[in-house]
TrEMBL record:
Domain G-protein coupled receptors family 1 profile: 39-285
Organism, scientific name: Orycteropus afer afer
Keywords: Cell membrane, G-protein coupled receptor, Membrane, Olfaction, Receptor, Sensory transduction, Transducer, Transmembrane, Transmembrane helix
Location in or out of the cell: Cell membrane
Main location: membrane
PROSITE patterns on file: G_PROTEIN_RECEP_F1_1, G_PROTEIN_RECEP_F1_2
Similarity section: Belongs to the G-protein coupled receptor 1 family.
Record PANTHER family: OLFACTORY RECEPTOR
Superkingdom of the source species: Eukaryota
Gene (UniProt): LOC103211823
Protein name per its UniProtKB record: Olfactory receptor
GO MF annotation terms: G protein-coupled receptor activity; olfactory receptor activity
């Protein structure tokens, strides 16, 4: 069957059709997005300027913040602008690129969270060999692998969509382009493609979650052999990681670990992992991490001293 694509533009229904609710959402989500950008940029600046980049945990935290910025920026700006727009439209190419970007950065974040769990496992369970196992060269290779894995996942998701014919209608019941809502508009049977998409996304999401669950279970069991101070410090660090994992994997599992169907709650669930989680990550990692807080204090004191000297 020859591909027929009469659709050049898609229309989003958005989060709400109530103008007053959209105005409130515009203010709230604008603040959330700005907080996400500033918080993650502050994490990156602190890691780089605070001489923390040489430590594997902060090396990965730096890239997690970078991915959070990219991930939210693929979706949030368009969504925020659309909240005040009468016609919430996006071109076919723009839709495909948004779909690619959301899956690229979303899956890369999953891989980085898995790597961070492995890093904590080595640090707590094999402390004497930590710097040997997690040397800079290995960290660079692991990070490259995370980006490549995210890219391959996104290419598969995009390839599933671009081969489909779209001949109308062109209204997407969502606020951004994702695979499930877009598949519903294709004028052909998408059952097989939906199964492949669910299997692909499910492998990434569920596989990552299982690895994380095993890693943190082993870590928590091994803490029984640690001193009271060692347990407190390890629990503080792992607690922040576990909080991020729960917030990110919970909604992702709801969205992608099911067949090609959509629910009314999908949009609100998607808001949580596309807007709210990237904003909360910096707060979680700074409030529960003494080294990051100390590095921020040193940077602030350095800035104050520079201002005083200039005067």
């Amino acid at each position: 069957m020859e591909k027929v694509n009469n659709v050049t533009t898609f229309i989003f229904l958005g989060l709400s059709q109530n103008p007053e609710a959209e105005e409130v959402c515009f203010v709230v989500f604008s603040l959330f997005y700005m907080a996400s950008l500033l918080g993650n940029l502050l994490i990156m600046l602190t890691v780089r300027m605070g001489n923390l980049f040489k430590f594997p945990m902060y090396f990965f935290l730096n890239y997690l913040s970078l991915v959070d910025i990219c991930y939210s920026s693929v979706i949030a700006p368009k969504m925020i602008v659309d909240l005040l727009a009468k016609m919430k439209s996006i071109s076919y190419v723009g839709c495909v690129l948004q779909l690619f970007g959301s899956h690229f950065f979303g899956s890369t974040e999953i891989f980085i969270l898995v790597v961070m769990a492995y890093d904590r496992y080595v640090a707590i369970c094999k402390p004497l060999h930590y710097m040997t196992i997690m040397d800079q060269d290995r960290c660079n290779k692991i990070m490259l692998g995370s980006w490549v894995g995210g890219f391959l996942h996104a290419v598969i998701q995009m390839a599933l969509v671009v081969q489909l014919p779209f001949c109308g209608p062109n209204v997407i019941d969502h606020y951004f382009c994702d695979v499930h809502p877009v598949l519903k508009l294709a004028c052909t049977d998408t059952y097989v493609i939906g199964v492949v998409e669910t299997a692909n996304s499910g492998t990434v999401a569920l596989g990552g979650f299982v690895i994380l669950l095993i890693s943190y279970t082993v870590i928590l069991v091994s803490l029984r052999k640690q001193s009271a101070e060692g347990r407190r410090k390890a629990l503080s660090t792992c607690g922040s990681h576990i909080a991020v994992v729960v917030m990110f994997f919970g909604p992702c599992t709801f969205m992608y670990m099911r067949p090609d169907t959509t629910f009314a709650e999908d949009k609100m669930v998607a808001v949580f992992y596309t807007i709210i989680t990237p904003m909360l990550n910096p707060l979680i990692y700074t409030l529960r991490n003494a080294e990051v807080k100390n590095a921020m204090k040193k940077l602030w004191c350095r800035k104050v001293s520079w201002v005083s000297n200039d005067k």
